[in-house]
């Protein structure tokens, strides 16, 4: 598809379907939300592109760079951001993804350094090995720092890195974070229910008032946390939690 044909479709509000958009210049696109379906973006530079409110359905992104792109309120459904041959994900560094939604997407090994993810939602996604280190989950409101907000729902985040992230009040519901790097992460008042944190590294993490009921906490060492005052757990989780402390739990006797 030519540049002119694409711009005409965007201006008309019509969907862009079943085309290769790898060679499009995204630096000066016309106003209007892109609606792309079954399209291919291969080694595409979407750096600083204005794509607020765009919709991408069943699109393939291979080694695509979204650095600095405006993707606020964008919706990605059934998209792949992972190149199976090179095992490399896409680069979202510095992208503005406030209010964006990823559903049924493959984001494995993608990078989100300094990306704005306030209010973003990841649902039923694969994001194994994704790098969220230095991503921004909070929003500045005047002189006050607003509440952190991001939701990961039924998403696979095994071996992902969130090191040092501020994830207070965020949601990780029924996710898998096996062997994830959660060092120095602040999970204060976060909803972590029914997620799998087996062998994840929580060294220096803050879990004050976090809700971990139903979560798998195998390998979590309370002595290595910075704090966990008010941590909520289920009674059947106590054995795994206190084992590193040398405490043995026995059934109640009458």
Automatic annotation (TrEMBL):
It comes from the Bacteria. It holds the Pfam family Pentapeptide. Transmembrane segments: none annotated. This is Fluoroquinolone resistance protein.
């Amino acid at each position: 598809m030519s540049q002119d044909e694409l711009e005409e479709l965007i201006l008309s509000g019509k969907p862009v379907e079943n085309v290769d958009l790898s060679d499009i210049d995204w630096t000066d696109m016309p106003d209007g939300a892109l609606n792309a379906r079954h399209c291919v973006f291969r080694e595409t530079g979407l750096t600083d592109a204005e794509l607020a409110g765009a919709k991408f359905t069943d699109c393939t992104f291979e080694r695509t760079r979204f650095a600095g792109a405006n993707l606020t309120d964008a919706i990605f459904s059934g998209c792949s951001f992972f190149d199976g041959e090179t095992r490399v994900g896409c680069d979202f560094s510095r992208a503005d993804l406030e209010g964006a939604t990823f559903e049924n997407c493959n984001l494995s090994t993608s990078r989100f350094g300094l990306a704005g993810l306030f209010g973003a939602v990841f649902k039923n996604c694969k994001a194994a090995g994704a790098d969220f280190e230095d991503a921004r989950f909070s929003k500045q409101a005047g002189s006050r720092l607003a509440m952190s907000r991001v939701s990961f729902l039924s998403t696979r985040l095994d071996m992902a890195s969130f090191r040092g992230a501020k994830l207070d009040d965020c949601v990780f519901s029924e996710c898998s974070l096996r062997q994830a790097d959660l060092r120095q992460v602040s999970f204060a008042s976060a909803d972590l229910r029914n997620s799998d944190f087996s062998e994840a590294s929580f060294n220096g993490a803050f879990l004050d008032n976090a809700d971990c009921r139903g979560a798998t906490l195998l390998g979590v060492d309370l002595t290595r946390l910075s704090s966990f005052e008010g941590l909520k757990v289920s009674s059947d989780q106590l054995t795994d939690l206190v084992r590193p402390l040398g405490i043995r739990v026995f059934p109640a006797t009458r």
